[in-house]
Amino acid sequence: MGNGPSLMDFVGAPEDVVAYAGESREGLTQVDGEKVVEQLKTVYDPEIPVDVYELGLIYRIDCKDNGDIDVDMTLTAPACPVAGEIPQWVADAVVKTEGAGRVMVQLVFDPPWTPDRMSDEARLELDMF
Largest Cα–Cα distance of the chain, in whole Å? Predict the structure, then answer.
């Protein structure tokens, strides 16, 4: 087991799970959302050979005027073994976007994830056509 939070830390309040990276700084401007997506595509669910963006786990990306970025994401299942780690992986990846300030990742389960949220690229990778 890792030193991070366990699933029990999230039971009962999954919407309250938040990961942060970076910090707000003066002089930053709105980040290009496509560049954020590029960074999101570097984060993989360790049990599935597809990145979190193509899996459809990213529900919202809000690139603010001051360079801060908010991300809402979900998991394929609330009992995912890395539920406490993936949001931080996402925050750590997104903060690498050029011009990024503070990144906040919110974990949500409404609406629930379904395979319908996957991209065609993900379906091909997982042989689901």
Answer: 48
C-alpha–C-alpha distance, residues 118 and 113, integer Å: 9
CA distance 41 to 93: 9
Q: Which 3 state secondary structure label does DSSP give 50?
A: coil
Residue with tokens 């990306």: 61
pLDDT for 43-97, tens place per residue?
Answer: 998 888 899 999 999 999 999 999 999 999 999 887 878 888 999 999 999 999 9
* 58-63 sheet: strands from edge to edge: 18-21, 103-107, 69-73, 58-63
What's the predicted TM-score (pTM) here?
0.84
